[in-house]
Amino acid sequence: MRALLIGAVEGTRVAMETIAAASGWELAGLLTLPPQLKGRHSDFDDLAGDAARLGAEVVFADNGNAPATVAAVEKIAPDISFVIGWSQLCRPALVRAAGGRMVGYHPAPLPRLRGRAAIPWTILLGERITASTLFWVGEGVDEGPILAQRFFIVAPDETARSLYTKHMRALERALQGLLPQLLMGDVPGEDQDHRLATWGARRNADDGRIDWSRPAVEIERLIRAVGRPYPGAFTFSGADKLTIWSASLSADGARHHASPGQVILGDGETFGVMCGDGVALSVGVYESSAGTAPRLNAMLGRAP
Fold this sequence. Notes:
- By secondary structure, the chain is an alpha/beta fold.
- It has 2 domains: about 1-200, Rossmann fold, CATH 3.40.50; about 205-290, Methionyl-tRNA Fmet Formyltransferase, Chain A, domain 2 (Roll), CATH 3.10.25.
- The protein contains 7 helices and 16 strands.
- It has helices at about 10-20, 50-55, 65-75, 90-95, 120-125, 160-185, 215-225; strands at about 1-5, 25-30, 55-60, 80-85, 100-105, 115, 130-135, 145-155, 200, 235, 240-245, 245-250, 265, 270-275, 280-285, 285-290.
- The strands form 4 sheets. The chain has a 7-stranded mixed sheet, with helices on both faces.
- The radius of gyration is 22 Å and the shape is elongated.
- The protein starts with a strand and ends in a 16-residue tail after the last strand.
Protein backbone atom coordinates (compact mmCIF):
# COMPACT_ATOMS: atom_id res chain seq x y z
CA MET A 1 0.00 0.00 0.00
CA ARG A 2 1.35 3.40 -1.01
CA ALA A 3 1.53 5.87 1.89
CA LEU A 4 2.08 9.61 1.99
CA LEU A 5 3.52 10.99 5.21
CA ILE A 6 2.90 14.62 6.19
CA GLY A 7 4.99 16.20 8.93
CA ALA A 8 8.30 17.71 10.01
CA VAL A 9 9.10 16.62 13.58
CA GLU A 10 10.58 13.72 15.55
CA GLY A 11 7.27 11.85 15.48
CA THR A 12 7.25 12.09 11.69
CA ARG A 13 10.59 10.29 11.63
CA VAL A 14 9.23 7.54 13.88
CA ALA A 15 6.31 7.10 11.49
CA MET A 16 8.57 7.19 8.43
CA GLU A 17 10.81 4.42 9.74
CA THR A 18 7.86 2.33 10.95
CA ILE A 19 5.97 2.55 7.64
CA ALA A 20 9.10 1.84 5.60
CA ALA A 21 9.81 -1.30 7.66
CA ALA A 22 6.23 -2.63 7.57
CA SER A 23 5.37 -5.55 5.31
CA GLY A 24 3.09 -4.60 2.42
CA TRP A 25 3.75 -0.86 2.78
CA GLU A 26 5.62 1.59 0.57
CA LEU A 27 6.54 5.10 1.67
CA ALA A 28 5.60 6.80 -1.60
CA GLY A 29 5.99 10.41 -0.51
CA LEU A 30 6.78 12.91 2.21
CA LEU A 31 5.15 16.33 2.46
CA THR A 32 7.28 18.42 4.80
CA LEU A 33 8.52 21.90 5.64
CA PRO A 34 11.60 23.31 3.90
CA PRO A 35 14.54 23.66 6.31
CA GLN A 36 14.35 27.46 6.25
CA LEU A 37 10.99 27.22 8.04
CA LYS A 38 12.26 25.02 10.85
CA GLY A 39 11.36 27.75 13.34
CA ARG A 40 7.72 26.71 13.09
CA HIS A 41 8.44 23.65 15.26
CA SER A 42 10.69 23.48 18.31
CA ASP A 43 11.13 19.78 17.56
CA PHE A 44 11.73 20.20 13.82
CA ASP A 45 13.44 17.28 12.11
CA ASP A 46 14.91 17.56 8.61
CA LEU A 47 13.63 14.33 7.03
CA ALA A 48 14.06 14.99 3.32
CA GLY A 49 17.37 13.19 2.82
CA ASP A 50 16.35 10.03 4.65
CA ALA A 51 12.96 9.96 2.95
CA ALA A 52 14.59 10.22 -0.48
CA ARG A 53 16.97 7.38 0.39
CA LEU A 54 13.90 5.27 1.19
CA GLY A 55 12.58 5.97 -2.30
CA ALA A 56 9.93 8.51 -1.29
CA GLU A 57 9.19 11.58 -3.36
CA VAL A 58 9.72 14.69 -1.21
CA VAL A 59 7.40 17.69 -1.49
CA PHE A 60 8.41 20.87 0.37
CA ALA A 61 5.58 23.24 1.28
CA ASP A 62 4.93 26.12 3.62
CA ASN A 63 1.19 25.66 2.97
CA GLY A 64 -0.04 22.11 2.58
CA ASN A 65 -3.35 23.25 1.13
CA ALA A 66 -1.89 25.42 -1.64
CA PRO A 67 -2.98 24.33 -5.16
CA ALA A 68 0.59 23.56 -6.21
CA THR A 69 1.07 21.32 -3.16
CA VAL A 70 -2.21 19.52 -3.77
CA ALA A 71 -1.19 18.93 -7.41
CA ALA A 72 2.19 17.50 -6.33
CA VAL A 73 0.46 15.13 -3.89
CA GLU A 74 -1.94 13.99 -6.62
CA LYS A 75 1.04 12.96 -8.77
CA ILE A 76 2.34 10.77 -5.95
CA ALA A 77 -1.06 8.99 -5.95
CA PRO A 78 -0.98 7.57 -2.42
CA ASP A 79 -3.56 5.06 -1.22
CA ILE A 80 -3.61 6.59 2.26
CA SER A 81 -1.83 9.35 4.15
CA PHE A 82 -0.56 9.90 7.68
CA VAL A 83 -0.42 13.35 9.30
CA ILE A 84 2.09 13.27 12.15
CA GLY A 85 3.76 16.52 13.21
CA TRP A 86 2.00 19.05 10.97
CA SER A 87 0.44 22.15 12.53
CA GLN A 88 -1.88 23.03 9.65
CA LEU A 89 -5.39 21.67 9.14
CA CYS A 90 -5.68 19.51 6.03
CA ARG A 91 -8.47 20.83 3.82
CA PRO A 92 -10.73 18.57 1.71
CA ALA A 93 -8.75 19.10 -1.53
CA LEU A 94 -5.55 17.86 0.11
CA VAL A 95 -7.35 14.92 1.73
CA ARG A 96 -8.74 13.83 -1.63
CA ALA A 97 -5.35 14.17 -3.32
CA ALA A 98 -3.72 12.21 -0.49
CA GLY A 99 -5.82 9.11 -1.09
CA GLY A 100 -9.10 10.17 0.52
CA ARG A 101 -8.16 8.56 3.83
CA MET A 102 -5.98 10.38 6.31
CA VAL A 103 -4.72 9.07 9.66
CA GLY A 104 -3.81 11.68 12.24
CA TYR A 105 -1.75 11.46 15.42
CA HIS A 106 -2.09 13.37 18.69
CA PRO A 107 -0.03 12.98 21.90
CA ALA A 108 -3.03 13.05 24.22
CA PRO A 109 -5.89 10.74 25.31
CA LEU A 110 -8.51 12.06 22.88
CA PRO A 111 -11.08 13.46 23.26
CA ARG A 112 -9.16 15.10 26.12
CA LEU A 113 -6.61 17.79 25.22
CA ARG A 114 -7.42 18.30 21.58
CA GLY A 115 -5.60 21.20 19.96
CA ARG A 116 -2.16 22.61 20.62
CA ALA A 117 0.77 22.02 22.97
CA ALA A 118 -0.56 18.72 24.31
CA ILE A 119 2.71 17.65 25.95
CA PRO A 120 3.29 20.88 27.93
CA TRP A 121 -0.38 21.01 28.91
CA THR A 122 -0.25 17.41 30.15
CA ILE A 123 2.45 18.40 32.65
CA LEU A 124 0.99 21.81 33.52
CA LEU A 125 -2.39 20.24 34.32
CA GLY A 126 -0.82 17.56 36.50
CA GLU A 127 -2.32 14.76 34.40
CA ARG A 128 -1.59 11.31 35.82
CA ILE A 129 -2.40 9.29 32.70
CA THR A 130 -2.02 10.16 29.04
CA ALA A 131 -2.09 8.36 25.69
CA SER A 132 -0.81 8.46 22.15
CA THR A 133 -3.77 8.46 19.76
CA LEU A 134 -4.17 7.60 16.08
CA PHE A 135 -7.46 8.66 14.50
CA TRP A 136 -9.19 9.33 11.20
CA VAL A 137 -8.76 12.98 10.23
CA GLY A 138 -12.05 14.80 9.73
CA GLU A 139 -13.06 18.40 9.22
CA GLY A 140 -12.61 19.39 12.87
CA VAL A 141 -9.56 19.48 15.13
CA ASP A 142 -8.54 16.07 16.50
CA GLU A 143 -12.16 14.88 16.58
CA GLY A 144 -12.27 11.93 14.15
CA PRO A 145 -12.90 8.26 15.07
CA ILE A 146 -10.11 6.69 17.12
CA LEU A 147 -8.08 3.95 15.47
CA ALA A 148 -5.61 3.17 18.25
CA GLN A 149 -4.72 4.50 21.70
CA ARG A 150 -1.81 3.48 23.89
CA PHE A 151 -2.14 4.69 27.48
CA PHE A 152 0.68 5.14 29.97
CA ILE A 153 1.39 6.76 33.34
CA VAL A 154 2.72 10.31 33.62
CA ALA A 155 5.46 10.33 36.27
CA PRO A 156 5.33 12.99 39.01
CA ASP A 157 8.71 14.33 37.85
CA GLU A 158 7.95 14.05 34.12
CA THR A 159 9.71 16.53 31.87
CA ALA A 160 8.77 17.59 28.37
CA ARG A 161 11.69 15.53 27.04
CA SER A 162 10.87 12.36 28.97
CA LEU A 163 7.18 12.59 28.11
CA TYR A 164 7.99 13.24 24.46
CA THR A 165 10.18 10.12 24.41
CA LYS A 166 7.41 8.00 25.91
CA HIS A 167 5.01 9.25 23.25
CA MET A 168 7.46 8.32 20.50
CA ARG A 169 7.63 4.74 21.80
CA ALA A 170 3.85 4.58 22.07
CA LEU A 171 3.41 6.00 18.56
CA GLU A 172 5.73 3.37 17.09
CA ARG A 173 3.85 0.52 18.80
CA ALA A 174 0.45 1.93 17.86
CA LEU A 175 1.47 2.18 14.21
CA GLN A 176 2.95 -1.32 14.21
CA GLY A 177 -0.42 -2.62 15.35
CA LEU A 178 -2.52 -0.48 13.02
CA LEU A 179 -0.66 -0.88 9.72
CA PRO A 180 -1.54 -4.59 9.26
CA GLN A 181 -5.19 -3.81 10.01
CA LEU A 182 -5.29 -1.10 7.35
CA LEU A 183 -3.81 -3.52 4.83
CA MET A 184 -6.64 -5.96 5.43
CA GLY A 185 -9.37 -3.43 4.65
CA ASP A 186 -11.49 -0.68 6.11
CA VAL A 187 -11.01 0.14 9.79
CA PRO A 188 -13.92 2.33 10.90
CA GLY A 189 -12.53 3.41 14.25
CA GLU A 190 -14.44 4.30 17.40
CA ASP A 191 -16.30 7.60 17.60
CA GLN A 192 -15.06 10.00 20.24
CA ASP A 193 -17.40 11.11 23.01
CA HIS A 194 -17.47 14.81 22.19
CA ARG A 195 -19.13 15.63 25.54
CA LEU A 196 -15.80 14.84 27.22
CA ALA A 197 -13.63 16.93 24.91
CA THR A 198 -11.21 19.53 26.23
CA TRP A 199 -8.87 21.76 24.25
CA GLY A 200 -5.32 22.98 24.80
CA ALA A 201 -4.60 26.54 23.68
CA ARG A 202 -1.56 27.42 21.64
CA ARG A 203 1.57 28.24 23.62
CA ASN A 204 4.58 30.29 22.54
CA ALA A 205 8.02 31.00 23.94
CA ASP A 206 6.79 33.96 26.02
CA ASP A 207 4.51 31.62 27.99
CA GLY A 208 7.67 30.22 29.57
CA ARG A 209 8.42 33.44 31.47
CA ILE A 210 8.57 32.72 35.20
CA ASP A 211 6.40 34.66 37.62
CA TRP A 212 8.21 34.31 40.94
CA SER A 213 5.11 35.39 42.86
CA ARG A 214 3.57 31.99 42.07
CA PRO A 215 4.01 28.97 44.40
CA ALA A 216 7.23 27.03 44.02
CA VAL A 217 5.48 23.82 42.89
CA GLU A 218 3.82 25.70 40.01
CA ILE A 219 7.11 27.22 38.86
CA GLU A 220 8.91 23.88 39.07
CA ARG A 221 6.11 22.32 37.00
CA LEU A 222 6.39 25.07 34.39
CA ILE A 223 10.14 24.45 34.11
CA ARG A 224 9.50 20.74 33.48
CA ALA A 225 6.65 21.40 31.04
CA VAL A 226 8.41 23.79 28.66
CA GLY A 227 11.93 22.35 28.71
CA ARG A 228 13.64 20.72 25.76
CA PRO A 229 12.68 20.20 23.00
CA TYR A 230 10.68 23.38 23.69
CA PRO A 231 12.19 26.86 24.29
CA GLY A 232 12.39 26.60 28.09
CA ALA A 233 11.31 28.59 31.15
CA PHE A 234 13.12 31.88 31.62
CA THR A 235 13.59 34.90 33.83
CA PHE A 236 15.80 37.99 33.92
CA SER A 237 18.49 39.26 36.22
CA GLY A 238 18.76 42.80 34.95
CA ALA A 239 19.63 42.49 31.27
CA ASP A 240 20.80 38.89 31.71
CA LYS A 241 18.30 36.34 30.42
CA LEU A 242 18.36 33.10 32.37
CA THR A 243 16.82 30.00 30.78
CA ILE A 244 16.20 27.44 33.51
CA TRP A 245 16.14 23.80 32.41
CA SER A 246 15.79 22.10 35.80
CA ALA A 247 14.99 23.04 39.39
CA SER A 248 13.84 21.39 42.60
CA LEU A 249 12.18 22.45 45.84
CA SER A 250 14.77 23.56 48.38
CA ALA A 251 14.48 22.61 52.05
CA ASP A 252 16.92 25.41 52.90
CA GLY A 253 14.40 28.02 51.81
CA ALA A 254 12.45 27.68 55.06
CA ARG A 255 15.31 29.38 56.94
CA HIS A 256 15.34 32.45 54.71
CA HIS A 257 13.11 35.49 54.72
CA ALA A 258 13.08 37.07 51.28
CA SER A 259 10.84 38.54 48.62
CA PRO A 260 9.58 36.50 45.65
CA GLY A 261 12.28 36.38 42.99
CA GLN A 262 15.12 37.16 45.39
CA VAL A 263 18.25 35.02 45.15
CA ILE A 264 18.85 33.58 48.62
CA LEU A 265 21.41 30.85 48.01
CA GLY A 266 24.37 30.88 45.67
CA ASP A 267 27.83 29.41 45.28
CA GLY A 268 28.86 31.20 42.10
CA GLU A 269 27.48 28.43 39.88
CA THR A 270 24.12 27.31 41.24
CA PHE A 271 21.57 29.37 43.14
CA GLY A 272 18.23 29.31 44.93
CA VAL A 273 15.27 31.65 44.48
CA MET A 274 12.41 32.49 46.84
CA CYS A 275 8.93 31.93 45.44
CA GLY A 276 5.62 33.54 46.28
CA ASP A 277 4.54 30.94 48.84
CA GLY A 278 7.74 31.24 50.90
CA VAL A 279 9.24 28.07 49.44
CA ALA A 280 12.52 28.28 47.55
CA LEU A 281 13.57 26.63 44.31
CA SER A 282 17.09 25.35 43.86
CA VAL A 283 18.08 25.94 40.24
CA GLY A 284 20.01 23.09 38.66
CA VAL A 285 20.73 23.35 34.95
CA TYR A 286 20.43 26.81 33.41
CA GLU A 287 21.85 29.00 30.66
CA SER A 288 22.82 32.63 31.16
CA SER A 289 23.16 35.14 28.37
CA ALA A 290 25.94 36.74 30.46
CA GLY A 291 27.53 33.41 31.32
CA THR A 292 27.28 33.86 35.10
CA ALA A 293 24.95 33.03 37.97
CA PRO A 294 23.01 35.93 39.53
CA ARG A 295 24.52 37.41 42.67
CA LEU A 296 23.13 36.75 46.12
CA ASN A 297 20.14 39.01 46.90
CA ALA A 298 19.62 39.87 43.22
CA MET A 299 15.97 40.23 42.25
CA LEU A 300 14.92 38.04 39.33
CA GLY A 301 12.01 38.53 37.00
CA ARG A 302 12.23 42.28 36.47
CA ALA A 303 12.21 43.48 32.88
CA PRO A 304 15.67 44.38 31.63
